[in-house]
Predict the 3D structure of the following.
Amino acid sequence: MTRTVCCQAFGVAALIGSLIAGQETKRTVWDGVYTDAQAERGRSAYAQACASCHAEDLRGKGTAPSLVEESFTFLWTDMTVGDLFLRTRMLMPSDRPGSLSSATYADIIAFVMSKNGFPAGGAELPTDVDMLKQILITEKRPQTK
């Protein structure tokens, strides 16, 4: 319960922080924010840099968390893709954080998104953090008005 409240509070705080900073979140991961080609590049990069800890099926090994389904949404719902990008770039791979190019981190995140069932679109996921902070991670597809 405490973890849930903490993670939800952190997600709300990140969203409020983005809004205060004038970075209104305009899109979600359901809006096709990466391409299939980018996710395919991410698959290869993931196999080389991530699979040894997070497993080939992204379900995690040992202390490395699962990057799919409920585990992913539990950790990242109401956060932005920018938050995910920054955390990944700062902490991963655990034996050499920050060692990949920004484009490779974006490709890996695109692959993770594809494995979570978020749809591909016509433009690649950017590497610009301000742009990524405008994309909200949501568990369910938002209702259209």
Remarks:
- The two ends are 33 Å apart (CA to CA).
- The beta strands are 27-28, 135-136.
- The chain has seven helices and two strands.
